[in-house]
Specification:
Trna Endonuclease, Chain: A, domain 1, alpha+beta
C-alpha cells in the first residue's frame, strides 16, 4: 500500500534554510512518519532532534499527534529530548 505524502508545516522550508545558513547540517526526516521528529541537525559536535510546528497556527493545530507522543516518549526514555521549533527565530536560538 502506498503511503500518502507527509504534511509539513508552512514554516518548515524557512526553518531548514535558516539553520543551513547558520552552518547546521540539516537532515529532513519529515517524510519518515511514525512520529519521528522532522529534522535531525548537527553543528560543532552537537546533534538535535527538531519538530517544526507553525507558530502562527492556533495551539490545537500545533498539538502533537498520537504517533509523535509515542515516539517522543521512547526518545525521552532513552534520555534524548526532542525540541519544538515554532519559528525561524526559535530555530536560530539553538
Amino acid at each position: 500500500m502506498a503511503r500518502r505524502r507527509a504534511r509539513v508545516d508552512a514554516n518548515h522550508a524557512a526553518v531548514v534554510a535558516a539553520l543551513r545558513l547558520r552552518g547546521w547540517y540539516v537532515h529532513d526526516c519529515s517524510r519518515l512518519g511514525g512520529g519521528f521528529p522532522d529534522l535531525v541537525v548537527a553543528r560543532r559536535g552537537r546533534i538535535a532532534l527538531i519538530e517544526v510546528k507553525d507558530g502562527t497556527q492556533p495551539p490545537s493545530r500545533q498539538a502533537l499527534t498520537p504517533s509523535e507522543i509515542k515516539a517522543w516518549d521512547a526518545f525521552d526514555a532513552a534520555g534524548v529530548r526532542v525540541l519544538v521549533v515554532r519559528s525561524v527565530d526559535e530555530a536560530l536560538a539553538l
